[in-house]
Design brief:
mainly beta; 2 helices; 26 strands; globular
Length: about 280
């Protein structure tokens, strides 16, 4: 049975641009092999925004060597990038962007959300690319809530399967390495049992309520548990109203060289990425 090796409580929030009050949930594990293939997890909100005519968000910036996964729970996020992709994702939707060989993009509250204001909550996950795929063509998957299958969990609760497979359902997200991204909800208190691939990194983010992993201590709201990678069996005991995100992935086992928006394997590759951006080779917005 899996157990929580470490529980990380919610850190102080900081602003990304003027639209995203985020908490970096990985703490000391950010950009380390201990959470591979995942690199970083920012939890934005829950927050309340007043109506405005100003566009709140983050202006154009580069990425290279990894993917960003944005899951919106409340509010709306609008995206533009240098490959010509543009989209708005709302509650339940997911944006899966492959930076690969290099991309510029910007993210804002949608015009509609800015005008009306309201509740805002999202998660943004950075997923590392294997060395062989860091030069992949940039791409964009707009995954609508209606296209994400939901399964009932043994023992209670349900899960949206965004990536990977659970029971008889496969998520719509296309990934470069084996991983699962599942959104769990527990309308009532329940204990569910899930099988995960043995050897996968496994992380549980609690957005609402609380959970216990096996017979371990409580993981409270806005907290994150890093589980042992050995046993495939995961038992989650959740309080009523709990909402959680489960990530599992096959570790890449490759060196990580990261600086700002670039994630490569060596310092030399980082320097090349910076030069590529400086000479305008990542396109234009």
């Amino acid at each position: 049975m899996k157990k929580a090796n470490e529980i990380l409580s919610s850190p102080p929030a900081h602003w990304v641009g003027d639209g995203f009050p985020v908490r970096g949930m990985f703490g000391k594990h950010v950009f380390t092999e201990s959470v591979s293939p995942f690199l970083m997890l920012d939890y934005a909100g829950p927050a309340q925004f007043e109506p405005t005519s100003r566009r709140r968000g983050v202006d154009g910036h580069p990425h290279k060597g990894f993917e960003t996964v944005t899951i919106v729970y409340a509010g709306e996020v609008e995206h533009h990038d240098s490959t010509g992709n543009h989209g708005v994702i709302g509650p339940g939707d997911v944006q899966w962007m492959t930076a690969g060989a290099g991309i510029l993009h910007k993210e804002y509250h949608s015009e509609n959300f800015a005008r009306e204001g309201g509740d805002f909550e999202m998660v943004q996950l950075w997923v590392n690319l294997p060395a062989k795929d860091k030069g992949a063509k940039p791409g964009y998957q707009s995954i609508l809530n209606a296209d994400i299958p939901t399964v009932s969990l043994p023992g209670g609760g349900e899960a949206r399967v965004i990536a990977g497979s659970l029971l008889d359902q496969t998520g719509p997200a296309k990934t470069f390495s084996p991983m699962n991204v599942w959104d769990l909800s527990y309308p009532e208190a329940a204990t569910s049992r899930i099988e995960l691939p043995e050897g996968h990194t496994c992380i549980v983010l609690v957005r609402r309520g609380s959970v216990r992993i096996g017979d371990g201590p409580e993981v409270g709201e806005a907290s994150l548990a890093i589980l042992d990678a050995g046993d495939a069996r995961l038992e989650i005991t959740a309080s009523s109203g709990t909402k959680a995100l489960i990530l599992s992935g096959e570790p890449l086992g490759e060196p990580i060289a990261a600086q700002g928006p670039f994630v490569m394997n060596t310092r030399e590759e980082l320097v090349d990425a910076m030069r590529q951006f400086q000479r305008g080779a990542m396109g234009n917005l």
